[in-house]
Each structure stands twice: as structure tokens, then as C-alpha cells.
Hints:
The protein has 4 helices and no strands. The protein starts with 9 loop residues before the first helix and ends with a helix. 3% of the residues are buried. Helix 1 crosses helix 2. The protein has one domain (10-77). It has helices spanning 10-23, 28-43, 50-61, 70-77.
Amino acid sequence: MVQAFVNLSEHVNRVLNVVKAKYGLKDKSQAIEAIVTEYEEDILEPELRPEYIKKAKRIMKQKPIHVGSIANLRKRYE
């Protein structure tokens, strides 16, 4: 486990206390872990995740569909 000393503003400190109370956590380090875990996927860029790379490679192997113009696209999918 890594230990770190951090400086927090009063507002951030209050938010951590609310998170700690809401989830019944023992300390602020658990609150920080909960916040990071919850927002990890939103914050990290999708290209950094291995499943995104697999999905992108699969999509790139597909044959493209030529539709020509917006009108043709609308006809095709209406």
C-alpha cells in the first residue's frame, strides 16, 4: 500500500467526509479510493483501456459501407 500526504481545501475535505459517511467508510483514504474507483472509467481516456483497443481493431477489420451522400444514407437507414 502506498501512503501519501496531501493538502486538501476545506471544500474537498467536506466532500470526502460526506462520501465517507454516505458509504459507511472508516477513513478518508477509503473515501478517496471509492471516488477513484467510481470515476476511473470516466476519467481515463478510452484508448488507454485494453478492451477499447480490441474493439477498435475489430471495427477496423469490418468492410466499410459506401453510402455516397447524406440523402443516400437517410434512404438506407429509414
